[in-house]
Structure formats: C-alpha cells, structure tokens
Specification:
Helix 1 packs antiparallel against helix 2 and helix 3 packs antiparallel against helix 5. By secondary structure, this protein is mainly α. The chain is built from five helices and no strands. The longest helix has about 35 residues.
C-alpha cells in the first residue's frame, strides 16, 4: 500500500509540474513583462507549497515501500522524487529570489529572461517527477 500511495503522489507531482511547464509557463510568457512577473509570484508560491509537500510525502512513502519489500526500485524512485528538494534549493531558488526582487514597475527584458530561465529549470523538476513516477510504476507492476 505504501508503494501505490508513493506512485499516486509522484504522479500528482508530475501532473502538476508538467501542467506548469506545458500550459501555465507558456501562457505566462504571452503576457507583457509586468503582468508575467506579477502572475508568477503568487503562482510559484502556491505551486511550491503543493509540490514540495508531494515530493516529500512521495519520497517517504517510496522509502517505506523499499523498507517493506526490499525492492530497490522503490528506493530509487524515492531518491529521485526527493532530488526535487536539493535541485530546487540549489538551482531554482536563486532565480526565484532574483525574480521576487524585481518590482513590477521595473519588469522588462531582464525579468522576462529570468522567467524563461526559470521555466527551463522548472522543466527539470517535471522530468524528475516523471522519472520517479515511472520507476514507481515499474516497481508496482513487478509486485503484481
């Protein structure tokens, strides 16, 4: 049961991340510079709360499934979904801080380039979530 819940939470994480990468971020970039920045700030804060929690829960559940079953794929999936935390802290957070420091009236080409860079970095989180979900899916399938 822990493994299936790890799969579920990793899948929800991946779904949210891919939605941001494929729908929200491109739509945001169609806005003018000020509006794009103003939209990004609360969107990221809310998304971070949800995705950080999902990554943590999924990682803990995957680790628990590994402990219960001894199947290394649960541990690998857990490690990959948890990698979102250091990835975000090391690579995404510095860009977040730069974006949050821009006043809306000062938005321009530099803030737009930062938003584009943030989008590429966020795609890395999408990839980690998708890989973890796929590994958990294989682990669950092998246990059938």
């Amino acid at each position: 049961m822990l493994g299936l819940t790890a799969l579920l939470t990793a899948s929800v994480f991946f779904g949210a991340a891919i939605y941001i990468s494929w729908a929200e971020q491109p739509a945001r970039l169609h806005l003018d510079d000020r509006a794009a920045l103003v939209q990004w700030v609360p969107s990221y804060r809310r998304g971070f709360e949800m995705q950080a929690t999902l990554a943590l829960i999924s990682g803990l559940l995957g680790a628990g499934a590994w402990g219960q079953t001894g199947h290394v794929l649960w541990g690998l999936g857990a490690a990959i979904i948890i990698l979102n935390w250091p990835y975000t802290l090391l690579f995404v957070l510095p860009v977040n801080r730069q974006l949050e420091a821009v006043r809306p009236e000062d938005a321009g080409n530099d803030s737009r380039e930062l938003l584009k860079y943030w989008g590429r970095l966020h795609a890395g989180r999408s990839a980690l979530g998708g890989l973890a979900a796929a590994i958990f899916l294989v682990a669950a399938w092998l246990e059938l």
